[in-house]
Design goal:
By secondary structure, the protein is an alpha+beta fold. It has 2 domains: 56 residues; 118 residues, no CATH class. Helix content is 51%, strand content 16%. Helix 1 crosses helix 2.
C-alpha cells in the first residue's frame, strides 16, 4: 500500500474531523430523543391516570378537568375570571364558585362611526334587547361547558321555575 499524498492526507483528515462532528451531533440527538421519549411516556402515564381518575369520579381529577375548562373558556375581556371548583364524590355534585358578571360588564357600544361632515366620532349603542339576550346566554354557555342543562342547574340550586340568578349567587353544577 502506497503512502497518501499530502492533499489526500489533508482530505482524509478533514473527512475524519467532519465524521467525528457528525457522530458527536448524532449522539447528542439520540440522547435528546431518548429523553424526549421518556418525558412523553411519563406524561402519557400521568394523563392516563388522570383520565382513569376522572372516569371513576375522583375529586382531584374532576376538579382539575373543570378548572382547565374554565381557564380555557373564552368570555369577553370585561368578564371576571375568578372561580373555585369543588367536587363532592359522595353525591356526585360539582360546585363551581364562578363570579357571574353583571350587565355592566358587557360592552355597551355596538360600533363607532366617523362622521366626516362634523369631523366627529359617533358611538352607536347596543340595544337593550341584545344586552339582555347576551347576558342570558352566559348561563347557557356555562351549562354547555359543563355538559349539563340549564334546567338541571336550576333544579339542583332550588331555583325552580323562577330561574332568577343574581350577580354574586353561587351555583352548584351537576356532574355528568
Amino acid at each position: 500500500m502506497r503512502p497518501l499524498s499530502k492533499a489526500a492526507a489533508l482530505q482524509d483528515s478533514l473527512h475524519q474531523e467532519k465524521l467525528q462532528k457528525y457522530n458527536t451531533a448524532w449522539s447528542a440527538w439520540e440522547m435528546s430523543r431518548s429523553e424526549h421519549h421518556a418525558t412523553q411516556l411519563q406524561q402519557r402515564e400521568q394523563f392516563d391516570k388522570l383520565r382513569s381518575d376522572y372516569k371513576t369520579a375522583k375529586a382531584p381529577a374532576v376538579e382539575y378537568f373543570f378548572r382547565e375548562v374554565l381557564a380555557r373558556s373564552q368570555y369577553p375581556e370585561s368578564f371576571p375570571r375568578n372561580s373555585l371548583v369543588h367536587f363532592d364524590e359522595s353525591n356526585g355534585v360539582l360546585i363551581v364558585d364562578f363570579e357571574l358578571p353583571n350587565q355592566s360588564a358587557l360592552p355597551a357600544i355596538k360600533e363607532v362611526k366617523y362622521v366626516a361632515t362634523r369631523d366627529q366620532f359617533q358611538e352607536i349603542p347596543l340595544s337593550a334587547a341584545w344586552l339582555k339576550k347576551t347576558y342570558d346566554e352566559v348561563l347557557y354557555q356555562i351549562a354547555l361547558r359543563h355538559g349539563t342543562t340549564v334546567a338541571e342547574i336550576l333544579a339542583i340550586n332550588g331555583l325552580g321555575g323562577s330561574g332568577l340568578i343574581k350577580p354574586g349567587d353561587k351555583l352548584k353544577i351537576p356532574s355528568q
